[in-house]
Amino acid sequence: MHATFSGAERPTLRFERRLAHPVQAVWRAITDPSELAHWFPSRVEVDLRVGGAMEFTFEHMPLDAPTAMRGRVTELDPPRLFAFYWGEDHLRFELEPADGGRACRLSFTVALDAREKAARDAAGWHRCLDALADALAGSPAERPHETDAWRGYYAEYAARGFPTGAPVPEPM
């Protein structure tokens, strides 16, 4: 499912996904650093409690890009809700059982710190959620921004009117 964009008070991306895995499996994938390593765009260290510190380490970034970023957990209600700051952006994962518990509905929102990041970040998070689904299915994932799929999503989001202007990764 593609993102929607709201440019209200704080620009926000919203994704809805139905995942063919129970809530507990998806919860592990979004909160356990060893599981996040399969799909999230950085290595994650987390003190999994409200107010807990988070550290994001980027291992495959251009030399002039930051290699680490901090965040903090803002909401935690296992296995239903996990929200945190990713630098200045606020990410929120909400899980709901579906199909009698055999599947899960994921609502993912990203409140952006800058409007011009919308198309770029929508494409990036779209690829990350694709990689999450692949990881849950046991398939290895590509790094999210190094694919033709990312470029296609970026072009599509820009064409749909999502704000642009933020730097985009160069092809590798």
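The record above closes out task 2.4. Task 2.5 opens with a second protein, given below.
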Amino acid sequence: MCADQQRKRNAVTRLFRNKATMATTTFYTKQRCNWIEGRDAKVDEVMREWMHKFCTLQDVKICVSTFNVNGKSPQSVFPTWFSQKKEDIAEFYAVGLQEMDLSVGTYIIDNTKKMEGWVDAIHCSLPGGRTHFNVVGSMRLVGIFVIVFQAAHSKVRVSDVNVKYVATGISVLVNKLGNKGGTAISMKMNDTWVCFVNAHFAAGNNELERRNQDFRDIYNDVVFYPRSQQDGLRDRPLEVPVMCLYDHDVVFWFGDLNYRLNTDIYGISNDEVRRIASSEKFGDLFQYCQLREQMARGTVFKDFQEPKVLPFRPTYKYDCGTNTWDTSEKGRVPAWTDRILTYKKYPQVGLELIRPMESVETITISDHKPVRALFNLKVKKINESGANSVYEEAIRESDRRANEELPQVQLSLNEVDFGIVNYLEPKTRSVIVQNVGKSKVRFSFKVRPNAQNNQEICEKWLMVSCIIFMNEEEMKMPI
């Protein structure tokens, strides 16, 4: 056997040994009659509409918080970071830190001491303390850290936990330092895919495009790979990505996004911004937010949501230990740099903000303020046998809808008789083209055989009033 044949044989052998790959590379298995989401978009659409037939929904409270800690060491506990009210206690807490460690050595040697201190402080700050919550997963990129906790009493089944980081900071030779970038955790809550992304974008008033590029880099590079369970290689990724960011049912994206206010363009001074930001009219400044402007243009965070106006003062920049705006030589203009945004894959996903977003002004160790938000997510639990029994009916319904979408028109006349036509005497006849289908129809006249140009549809003595037209549903068009 030649070397090339041996390589092909080995490739086929590996394919058949890998059951995980088999499940995703062919429909011709004993599971072919079962519903696998993503196989057919039209069928998936019907299945989502019929989800009540094979799914139960469970309300789950999720608290998300972001905090740029400015390299500071944590205190033992932050009593006001998370609401301790019974009605505000969440089942899951997702926390993102930025600038957790600013020491130069951190970029060279992995030092976990400060991270461990912050994990302990967050754990102790959760309602009821560390004994009431367990760590689901965490991911660190130098000073960018994300961690998710689950309540010990929670009945939600968490599976398929995976992590990823993307560095977007300063380039050194062919690599990028992790001073900017993102960390992400993907998981399945019952049968709902959820992703938490903590990001730190480029700083500086004039770095708008760099911030936009940071978003694009993280969005494109956050790809979660399946973990092989074969031959004991538990953490070895396969070649085919299993989940991209927008494949999740829900994405929480939070962090120090560093978008500033464009007040200088409109001639508003730093002193005036500070005066307004300190008053009850701080919301008037939100119209100048760079992030909101970029979202409106579709440049970044397409399909992500955020409250129309943030109901708290700008979270940056303060003198550490105070609630006083930056008095350093740079005198930074206040801005809402710290944000929490959400994405839903489908409109049917039940996600709502159940408390107004808040900044925690009582925490003063950093030049930023923490931001927190409380959500309710309806996580689904699929009854597989129920889904599979509905699946075949959904295929038929999908076919029926596809047939309805086929173009269908009806003519008022099949033949046009002008009767007796005299020389130089114009005569007019009308034919009604009616769209009797359920989709738009574009109709046109065919060019005559042997026509001298590609627009000649009839003899020169005949004029047609409508040659090409887009006909809406149930619309009648006279010709």
